[in-house]
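Figure S4 source data
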Amino acid sequence: MHFSLTDLIADITQNGAESGADLVELHVSETADSSEHGSGKREFRFTVIDNGKGMSAEELKRIQDPFVTDGIKHPHRKVGLGIPFLIQTAEASGGGWEMKSSKKGASPENEAPAPSGTTVSAWFDLDNVDTPPVGDIPGLFRTVLLFSGPSEVVIKRLREGSGKGGLDYEIRKTELADALGDLEETQSLILLGQYLHSLEENDEENEE
C-alpha cells in the first residue's frame, strides 16, 4: 500500500519507464486555486507522459480494474493496484484523474500514424483530511532518474501560492549524467541527492 503521494507517483512513473519508452516526463506542481470562483485551496498535481508502446481503449479500461494484471512487473502478485489505487486516492481526497493512451497500429488512410504513448494525470486537494502526505520530493526525483529503460527522463517542478516559497525548475537525466557521470555510482548518488534537495530548499531559505 502507498503511504504518501510520492510513493504513488513513483509507481505510476515506473509503469511509464517499463513501457518501452525512450522518453518519460514527470510534471509535479503545487498551486493555489486562484480562479474567480476558486476556494483558495492548495492543489497538488502530477502528470506522467511516456512515448512507450501505449494501450488500446480496451486495455486502458482494463488496467483500472485492481483484479487485472499482466503478471510481468510483479509475477507473484495477482492484482495490480497502481492505477486503481491512484483513482481511489484522487477521488477520496477531493481531486480527480485522467488517463489517455495511443497504441502503435493501423492509422486511417492517408493519415500518418499517431505517436504511441500514455499520459496519466491526477490532482489532490492538499487541505482535504483524506489526502495522504506529499512525502519526499527529492527522493522521488532521484528514484525516477534511476529507473532503467528510458534514455531520457525530464522532470518539471512548479510550486506557487503555497506559502512555502516559489519553485520553477526542470531537470534532465542526460544533463545530470554529463555533469556527474554514472548516476548509479556512490559519489554521483550523493551529489545527486544534495543537488535535488538544494533545488527544493533554496527558495524556502530565501524567504526566512
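Figure S5 source data
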Amino acid sequence: MSDKPSNIRELISNELPRLYAFAFHMSGSRPEARAHVDQLVRDIKTKGGDALVTSDNPSDAVLGLMARTMEENLGRKSEFSFDGLDNLLRSDITRPIDLSGGVLQNSPQKVHLMLWELKRSCLTATLCCLPPGVRVSFVLTDLLGYSPADAARLLGIKESAYRVRLTRARKRIEDYLTPRCAHVDPQNPCTCTGRLVIALDAEFIKTPAHTLDIPHDPHDADGPRRDMGSLYRSLPDAQLTPEEKTETLAGLG
C-alpha cells in the first residue's frame, strides 16, 4: 500500500508544518515564513503540482522546490549581520528582568514564553547572518538531517559545491556563538535572562500570536550544547495555527 499523497492538496497539507519550519529558519521571521509558504502555494497552483505528486519522493520534491525558490528569492546577501546582531543585543551591560512594568508586568509565565522566543529568535537570526546559499546547507543537513549528497540533489547543485557551503556555514556559526552564547558554554557572557529586557526594548522580539510552539520546560533546561547542529535541533519548530494552515491551503483553490 502506497503512502504517497493522492493529490497536491494532500501533499501540501502533509508537508506544511515542515515547509513553514524550513521557511522560518531561512527567513528568521514568522510573517516572512508565512509569506514564503503562501507564495509557494500560489506558484504551485499557477504551474500545477502533478509532477510533485507523481515524483518518486513527493515530500522531498516539494521541499526541494521550496529550498530553491527561497534561495533565489532571498538573493545572495543576508539581511542580518554578526556585527549588527552584537550592536543590537550586546552593546549594553546585561539588565535584570523587571516584572513591575512593560510586557512582563506581574507575569512570570510571560517571562518563560519570551525567554523561549528570544532563544529561538537569536539563534535563528545568527543563522540568517549567513548568505542564503550557505544558510540553506546548514538547515537541510544539520537541522533536517539530509546527507550532503541528498541535499545537493534537492538544490540541483554538485555535491562538492554543497560541501563547501556546509563547511562554511558550520564554521561561521561556531566561530560566532562559541565565545558568546551561554547555550554553548555557561561561562559565556550572553545569557537570555540578561538580554531579555534589551531585546524587548529594541523590539527584536515581540509577543508571539500563539504559544503552540513554546515548550513547557525552561529555555535552558537541556544544558549547554557545543555541537552547533545539536544546539539548533534542540529549538522547537515554529508552527502555524490550524486557522493559518486552513488559510494557506485555501490558496490552492
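The chain has one domain: 8-252. The longest helix spans residues 8-27.
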